[in-house]
Amino acid sequence: MIDNYSIYNGKKYEVEFNGDRYFLLSETKDEGFVEYVDYHGEVYDDLYCIEIFPNSAPPIHCLKFQVKYMGIFFEVSFGRIYKGIVAIYTNDNDIALKYNFERFEKIFFCKEILGEEIEEIKIEDNLLAENLIDIAETKTTYIPKNQVIEWLYENIK
């Protein structure tokens, strides 16, 4: 699951923001793509990219992913979702204490929950404006409890 994406030449690509530079990422060497080089200079032979520029970039979408647990929607990090486990976050000390969250950073609390404990998934697909900062449009999708497990297994690598 990717959290920033764009449709380019009819294909969906992950978008990486690197300062004022923007890249489309692919696991295949599509036309115009070159081997990915990270900010340390390491070259990847199994990841490819093409730089896009804000004034000519295809529309970029940013996904915001939340899950409902104990009647409350919590933020989720895409890097912390596994097939049957989701890490949820809060900065609300009272909620953290009430639901046994662990301190993750100075002001953040984290808790790993099972997919079966998720009451609903909320996905906001935000289309960025041309300045790539403001949101031009939002489409919200809800995944009900009876479809959560299936959705997690189909959409999370």
- The number of distinct β-strands equals 12
Characterize the biggest β-sheet.
12 strands, antiparallel
The Rg value, from CA coordinates, equals: 18 Å
What gap, in angstroms, lies between the N and C termini?
Answer: 7 Å
Class derived from helix and strand content: mainly beta
SSE pattern, N- to C-terminal: EEEEEEEEHEEEEH
**Percentage beta strand:** over 45%
Key features of this structure:
157 residues, mainly beta, 2 domains, 12-stranded antiparallel β-sheet, 12 strands
Tell me what you see in this structure.
The chain has about 160 residues and is mainly beta. It folds into two domains: about 5-55, no CATH class; about 60-155, no CATH class. Helices cover about 10% and strands about 55% of the residues. It has helices at about 95-100, 145-155, and strands spanning about 5-10, 10-20, 20-25, 35, 45-50, 60-70, 70-80, 85-90, 100-105, 110-115, 120-130, 135-145. Strands 1, 2, 3, 4, 5, 6, 7, 8, 9, 10, 11 and 12 form a twelve-stranded antiparallel beta sheet that branches. The mean pLDDT is about 85.
List the helices and strands and how they pair.
Blueprint: E1 4-8, E2 11-18, E3 21-26, E4 34-37, E5 43-52, E6 60-69, E7 72-81, E8 85-90, H1 93-98, E9 102-103, E10 109-114, E11 120-128, E12 135-144, H2 145-155
Antiparallel strand pairs: 1-2, 1-6, 2-3, 3-5, 4-5, 6-7, 6-11, 7-8, 8-10, 9-10, 11-12
